[in-house]
Amino acid sequence: MIKENVFLLHSNCMPVKGYRRSIICDLQRHEIELIPNDLYEILSEFQGKTINHIKKFYKNKYDFIIDDYFSYLVRKEYVFFTNTPRFFPKMNLEYNSPFEITNAIIDVTYSLNFLALNENIIDQLIKLKCKHFEIRIFDKFSIEDIISLLKMISVKDDFFFQLGLYVKYSNEMDSKFLKNILKEYSFINYIILYNSKVNEFKKFQDLDDRYVVQIKENFLNEKSCGKIDKTLFISNVKTYTESQSNNSCLNRKVSVDKEGNIKNCPSMLQHFGNIKDCTIEEALNHKDFKKYWNITKDQIDVCKDCEFRYVCTDCRAYIEEPDNPYSKPLKCGYNPYTNIWEEWSTNPLKQRAIEHYNFLE
Amino acid sequence: MEGKWSFLMKSKKNKEIIIVSEDDDKSTNLVIEWLHAYGKSFKRYNDDSFFDLSIFLNKDLKNVLKKYSNNVFWIRRGGLKFSPNLISETFFYNHIKTEEKAVKYFFEKMLYLNRKIYGSSYFEKENNKINNLFLARESGLKIPDTLITTSKKELNLFFNKYDSIINKCIFHPIRFNIDENYKIQGSGTVIVAKENIDFFDDFFSLSFFQEYIEKQYEVRIFFLKDFFFSMAIFSQNDEKTKIDYRNYNREKSNRNIPFELPRKIKNKIKKFIKKSKIDTGSIDLVVNNKNDFFFLEINPQGQFNWVSETCNYYIEKKIAEEL
């Protein structure tokens, strides 16, 4: 059966070509697999053809390699064989969302009226139907303060939203405490504890997909953001489709930085008003607010040649050439022309930009 | 019939959608997001919320649904509940429920005739596998040979005709709560072996048997009125899901990908939908190695969010537009 039938990629397995190698993004199983560019060529040129057809095309010189490739593809369930390829359309790559804003970041610092300030922001986000928001607490808050913040949010039940929480680790935050918090406040999707003693990923029974991550790194301020790393790559339908025509980090995002400035991202300099005298909606209407939303990886220098371009988190706040919005993320140490990952911060070519952003301040 | 009744509800101003669902139904939440985005007004009733109902039957049949002339109903999960919450805690509630059911089915039917409802609790609650198989066959769809019997003799004859046969529940999946710690749950679809049959008495309680179709893949179709979204499920590679994809393998999911139904099959399904009067639901088909499509069953209130997500179909958006 396999011999006469043509092969097709399962349409949620997307091959993406890089300069020297390619990947298959398995959007269903959330995996990324490296493949050689030769195999990419076979997958993109010969879908809907039989294996024999491919072998013949290469004048039967590489039969052994081709068989090898296909046994790998079958084992990973990337391809299947069929005599009715017309039944299996390509996946639609449209990205859509009911609301203009899908995600938000609020950076919180301590002040006497921090509750009232943040309530105002959260009310506005709820009005905009923002579904995911992240609250990042850079100062050391007492546990009581954190809980009063969560309590304030918990009474706003008129829309379903999910919250991510960045908090500085303290000894009181043991497993029991964290589990109770997640149980009590069902809108919390994840908690990230920076400045922890260990790096650890925690899930609890009966709490579905919700989780706690402990990281040793100290998240001092918004300048800690923007790192590009393999572990942050996401292979799913949403990210893949969104990054086809939008920026995977900044699209449909609003932020309020620790000074109350309304921005696309807290790490960016440009702001569009302060929460004290301007609403988020007003800021959104500024002609430049959305200027990064549609910058795709296909338009960014270097990234456009990178095999990871549709699974990457990107960053437009810290870039190699601060004056060129289409330059590569500064905090990316990957070179798609050599396939080598290096430490970004010590790269001599990046020092000027590093100085520009004052990371050492 | 439909033409005759359509004058009953004409007014279109201030349309309000009535959604009947369960508290934690993800699909409902997603449809609601799109309703917000489109600025459509709606009211949600979960399975525990009371719905205030009045129906008028008098010489002027125009008034039957007059209170609901601005409403469209979407029965996503469960059904409307017409008892105030206090009553549902009493010993006579089971009796009230049967009374309610009679009204509920009538009410749904009236709404259906006026094209003011999507889905129904009737088809979910009274979903009859055997009747559906019969209607599917009548609509020209292939079905696996099926035997419903009380007789070991018939079962043996049936067994000998096929390489392999399966058994599944006729109406509801088995679930007995013996006590707090002890529950019995059916194992879904199972292969029937010769040893199983030998173990039976000559007569047994009604059981459902079906020829096992060696499959290439399964197809799950979600439909609502005229739109169809299909997904192929490659469940044959996995021992766990080989017999029925619902014996889920949670570590390594089956490959699920967008599927385009051949037009001939689609037309037969449309015929089935018309005959059965089920206007929304999820249909399971199985495709054998000769590319024959077999109708297995329909779940009027089946889950579709996983189809929507895995195939990037935005079904929820489409529903919100339709309502």
From TrEMBL, chain A:
Residues making up the signal peptide according to the UniProt record? none
Give the highest taxon in the source lineage. Answer: Bacteria
Q: Which InterPro entries match?
A: 4Fe4S-binding_SPASM_dom, Aldolase_TIM, GRASP-with-SPASM, rSAM_sf
Q: What protein am I looking at?
A: Grasp-with-spasm system SPASM domain peptide maturase
Native source organism of the sequence: Flavobacterium jejuense
Gene this protein is translated from: gwsS
